[in-house]
Automatic annotation (TrEMBL):
Descriptive protein name: Triosephosphate isomerase
Record's keyword terms, sorted: Cytoplasm, Gluconeogenesis, Glycolysis, Isomerase
Entry-linked CDD domains: TIM
Enzyme class at the top of the EC tree: isomerase
Organism: Candidatus Gottesmanbacteria bacterium GW2011_GWA2_42_18
Single annotated GO MF: triose-phosphate isomerase activity
Source species taxonomy: Bacteria, Candidatus Gottesmaniibacteriota
InterPro entries: Aldolase_TIM, TIM_sf, Triosephosphate_isomerase, Triosephosphate_isomerase_AS
Reactions accelerated catalytically: D-glyceraldehyde 3-phosphate = dihydroxyacetone phosphate
UniProt xrefs under SUPFAM superfamilies: Triosephosphate isomerase (TIM)
Length: 226
């Protein structure tokens, strides 16, 4: 495929340190020092505690992978026990996930908190992947990449059809013309990835479960590259 594509693997709250290390080792055996086509960017989002090791292994194995974080503090650095500030993350990662439906639902993150998190990420120069589950969801100013993820398709094995995803992606794009890229997420796998990427408004995908497995993640990249 010739257009620019982003494949972003959201590991969620999965993998011990040794399982995370295994992922990079096995992935490096699959990719065998090859690079990805220039138009294809691959990002993985491990747990915060594994980011530093992930960065080390990506460099050590010379993997064509970028790093992202799944969460950040809505506040700046300071006396906020347990929080990780955007300025701390920007040492380690290029991308940040904000607005995932699991955080909206389980941690009561509303539009106000998500806007604060987006502001912190922008101040720190992080690239935001801002998740929405509906075309009418709010998107904060300054967000560059939006991921459309219908809640019923997340973790269910039942992806939206490529046409449904394209319709919503194009509605989001017309509402937010400054957003440069729209991803689709929700049960993306090596078999259906290409259908989504063929759609004119969809510039990438956000797989969860299938990104945990180095073989499936590699196959998604391989199919996306063709
Ligand atoms: P899934 O998750 O691929 O496991 O459906 C996607 C996501 O939640 O980002």
């Amino acid at each position: 495929m010739t257009k620019d594509i982003l494949v972003a693997g959201n590991w969620k709250s999965n993998k011990t340190l040794s399982q995370a290390e295994d992922f990079f080792r096995v992935f490096s055996e699959k990719i065998k020092g090859e690079s990805l086509p220039q138009n294809l960017t691959a990002v993985v989002f491990p747990s915060l505690i594994h980011l530093e090791k992930a960065r080390f292994l990506i460099n050590d194995y010379r993997l064509p992978l970028k790093l992202g974080a799944q969460n950040l503090s809505a506040r700046q650095e300071g006396a906020f026990t347990g929080e990780v500030a955007a300025s701390q993350l920007s040492d380690l990662v290029e991308y940040i996930l904000i607005g995932h439906s699991e955080r909206r639902k389980n941690y009561a993150e509303d539009d106000e908190i998500l806007a604060q998190k987006s502001d912190r990420a922008i101040e720190a120069g992080l690239k935001i992947i801002y998740c929405v589950s509906d075309k009418n969801d709010r998107v904060p100013d300054g967000v560059d990449i939006v991921a459309y993820e219908p809640v019923w398709a997340i973790g269910t094995g039942k992806a939206a059809t490529a046409q449904e995803a394209e319709e919503t992606a194009s509605a989001i794009k017309s509402k937010h013309p400054k957003v440069s890229r729209i991803l689709y997420g929700g049960s993306v796998n090596p078999d259906n990835i290409v259908e989504f990427l063929k759609m004119p408004t969809i510039g990438g995908v956000l797989p969860g479960k299938t990104s945990l497995d180095p073989d499936q993640f590699f196959r998604m990249l391989k199919n996306a590259a063709e």
